[in-house]
Amino acid sequence: MGWGDLGVYGEPSRETPNLDRMAAEGMLFPNFYSANPLCSPSRAALLTGRLPIRNGFYTTNAHARNAYTPQEIVGGIPDSEQLLPELLKKAGYVSKIVGKWHLGHRPQFHPLKHGFDEWFGSPNCHFGPYDNKARPNIPVYRDWEMVGRYYEEFPINLKTGEANLTQIYLQEALDFIKRQARHHPFFLYWAVDATHAPVYASKPFLGTSQRGRYGDAVREIDDSVGKMLELLHDLHVADNTFVFFTSDNGAALISAPEQAGSNGPFLCGKQTTFEGGMREPALAWWPGHIAAGQVSHQLGSIMDLFTTSLALAGLTPPRDRAIDGLNLLPALLQGRLMDRPVFYYRGDTLMATTLGQHKAHFWTWTNSWENFRQGIDFCPGQNVSGVTTHSLEDHTKLPLIFHLGRDPGERFPLSFASAEYQEALSRITSVVQQHQEALVPGQPQLNVCNWAVMGHLAGPEGPRLLPRRHRPPGATPEGDPRGPHRLHRRRVPRGRIQGASASARAEGSTWALRVCLGEGFWGPSGAPGRARCLGSPPKGCEVGPPRPPRCAGALPAGSGFPAQDRRDRVARSVGLPGVPKLNPRGPAASLLVPSASWY
Amino acid sequence: MGWGDLGVYGEPSRETPNLDRMAAEGMLFPNFYSANPLCSPSRAALLTGRLPIRNGFYTTNAHARNAYTPQEIVGGIPDSEQLLPELLKKAGYVSKIVGKWHLGHRPQFHPLKHGFDEWFGSPNCHFGPYDNKARPNIPVYRDWEMVGRYYEEFPINLKTGEANLTQIYLQEALDFIKRQARHHPFFLYWAVDATHAPVYASKPFLGTSQRGRYGDAVREIDDSVGKMLELLHDLHVADNTFVFFTSDNGAALISAPEQAGSNGPFLCGKQTTFEGGMREPALAWWPGHIAAGQVSHQLGSIMDLFTTSLALAGLTPPRDRAIDGLNLLPALLQGRLMDRPVFYYRGDTLMATTLGQHKAHFWTWTNSWENFRQGIDFCPGQNVSGVTTHSLEDHTKLPLIFHLGRDPGERFPLSFASAEYQEALSRITSVVQQHQEALVPGQPQLNVCNWAVMGHLAGPEGPRLLPRRHRPPGATPEGDPRGPHRLHRRRVPRGRIQGASASARAEGSTWALRVCLGEGFWGPSGAPGRARCLGSPPKGCEVGPPRPPRCAGALPAGSGFPAQDRRDRVARSVGLPGVPKLNPRGPAASLLVPSASWY
């Protein structure tokens, strides 16, 4: 979801009355940022309070490469990271995640192993449908159990856009709140993904927006937020519940206009470190504590939600590691402003830094010329010469600096000769040096050396499908009783046996498809540096500890795609025609609008 | 001022608390339009309820040419037009205009000859300073009397941006409200121009905005609106006063980033018929009548303020002419939506039409390649291939159609083959045909055949400077008692004698500079078609009724500039070096941000 998607942030159709009211009753942050222009790293940052470069949610496959956790990634949230629900447990909190986890899909990364007490949702987005032979659909879990898969037990009609998922996620949230509100302090992380392409909404919302299907999805999320706030009032716990709404990255514009959101007046969108990629809508609500109708110009970060939540629970963040999140309570309760930098990373590369009103770009890049010429455009209709570059441009010697107050759209770099430039550069350089000198990067989790891991269905460690079809609580698609599910019935065989055999086939094809692009190598079920492999590694890949890339078919640095697409193209480039595409709908589907995070 | 300049429309710095509160207490229109992407035509449309093509506020000098009323334009609002204050007089209203008139500066166009009872302001923007020899500064009037000139009696410090003008205009408004509120129904047209480059603010506001000087100006306007609304409450007439805030055209982006506003997510700005050029902020406020916190998706127009105001006064619009303004009261009071088209003209050319959510472009154009290569950019950072064209592109056979709900930024034209395109085209074509068949264009008032008219200082008909320096009510610049005025003292000789001699010199140079680009010709003091000339007309110009252009030095159609700049370049092209430039700061100054209209 993008900064400009809410009425209160200027969306012209003004279709978010509940979120707008939440803003009117609370505090709005116009200068609030995700920790990354992509979903998984941003969510890992939210839950750890640490930049992805610290918690491992980045790749060293290539310089400045975006990466997330498609099914084939073996990495995930390291056990060494302390997640917000783990810490809140010390204060008696019960925690639930509803929706997309995105912090790894192999058993050791399960949310219930990282502090959550309950989970209803999926380890990944609702990409698909897949053929369930070489590649199964994404699973949906209730706690430890797989209760079905997208496009199967949880139908999504790609043609009409109908899916009941947001209603299911809403009911899960309401149910959790009702159960916990009178007994325990609780932490709900509501991570819906209806605004992530393929965009969906339930029947009562479909076709109701002036903005098309994307707007339908936004309207349903808005309506759900309204229902949750209403329940808090009804349960008389509103004045004891801190609620924050934000998003994990800017609206993806490559799916525009049908399935893309709005980043308001900002430059570009998801995948980029321009404002459109990382500035987010952000609303705080806590009746009786946060005064109504306030705007805070505090530079905020999704990582602050970690520190702020701990502070609310009377806890302090871990002292044995760097924490990037601020405690926002002084801003929320006393209207104070705290100096802090915002760091914009792509993968392992610090692309830009904002301090006060000034933003310095050390590197500029949207995507590669190759991708751009194929029609993949992260900045449709926008072109700022020398800024929205299609090659990775090094400005570290002489950064481009913008004043975000006068020029929120990053169109007019300050003159290098100006006193303002010199002053801003000096301040920012000092902060960046300090940051980089103290930085201890985490072990990169999002490198790609194997694309047939699919841990969610792998052998004995893998999940078990519940024996009966899951019936969503209180939400059944209307119309044809067979529902949109039927559309994919022929393409998506169901059930445990097929899943297992698909898994076997996937395992069997592992080595043929294995490519090694980064400095580390992991086998299909090994941990970093301790690979366990079947058969012989393919040419150019080795089993062993991290080492510099020596892979066949490696792409030049800076092709601008997350691992998934790149792998696909590499697979083709090393002469493996007929390899099933990771996403049958092409690379666009792996790069689209993120879900909104709400917790 | 642009659509995106108010906090309530999403401006990230959120520096308009008074306007935002006005919206919260009243009704916000996200789909409200000016009648033209330039100031004079839009203001003429506001006061007549008629499109500029009807009321004469356009030029036939060239196809699709923007034009306004610089000092040298002899045209103005025709006597045949019935202005809102003229009509309101029938219902006992007393009317005042504060600020920029812009409907002609020759004696017959004086606002007090067109229904206003009072005027404090200027016939034009605050361009300058000029040399007061070949070209005097723009005068400021109180009613019939010239009370001074910008940069002289009304100083504007271009270096610091300091000017007390908005404070003066505020005091004039407050004074008028106080005087009238208890005795007569009143109509106040508050037409400030602080956000028009050169942008200014008074000392208490200078340097207070995160957005730079433009933001300072916006903050002062916002503060002034707050004071006016407060006074209405204090006088207990708030529930009997309808207040509307809007702007006359989108933010001019060529003065970005220092002196430009924001058009939010929309394409381009002033001078263009993309949404950024004509979609405006619009707030209606009438406590006790318009319910608080409403949003109306009614397609609205600045011309509706004419019809709506008449309806509020119990009057009907003239029946002997076409009126384009709708009565918005059903939208304001009952939340109704009325079907209506929005027509986007440049000069004599219907560029685009919006009906419902669909906008069809019949012509696309920003400015000429020639201008663009000189760095004049109406769409900085934006480039939509085939849409933001630098030649006037004819799409009349196959219009480009956008869905403004899904694609407010006009980036993705609908597929010509789609059913949606066909349906929208059919609806829009029908409405446009009806419009064009019934259209009777007015006599064009903004053609340029002479650029030494300067009626505001010409001989016996001209204004008289009051003998003593005007002291603004309750607002004196702080600091150096000589004030910023001193900076220009040497360049700007003052007083009646110099003005008169400058006038004589200007008169003397009339013929040498005269060029004729249009189908009509006017002498320095003649009315259209009845020119009275000194000496012989220059080659290519004739005295007489309108006829096709046969001028020397005419520019090719589509150079993208209003008359002023074009004239300047024509003068050079016919071999007259040394002609003083109309604006010493170059063409940018004649194309910048418009003022906000409030009435």
UniProtKB/TrEMBL annotation, chains A, B:
Swiss-Prot/TrEMBL cofactor(s): Ca(2+)
Cofactor stoichiometry and binding remark: Binds 1 Ca(2+) ion per subunit.
GO cellular component: lysosome
Catalytic reaction list: Hydrolysis of the 6-sulfate groups of the N-acetyl-D-galactosamine 6-sulfate units of chondroitin sulfate and of the D-galactose 6-sulfate units of keratan sulfate
Region (Disordered) location: 460-491
Designated name of the protein: N-acetylgalactosamine-6-sulfatase
Catalytic residues (positions): 39 (nucleophile), 102
Gene name as annotated: GALNS
Description of how the protein assembles with itself and partners: Homodimer.
Species assigned in the record: Macaca mulatta (Rhesus macaque)
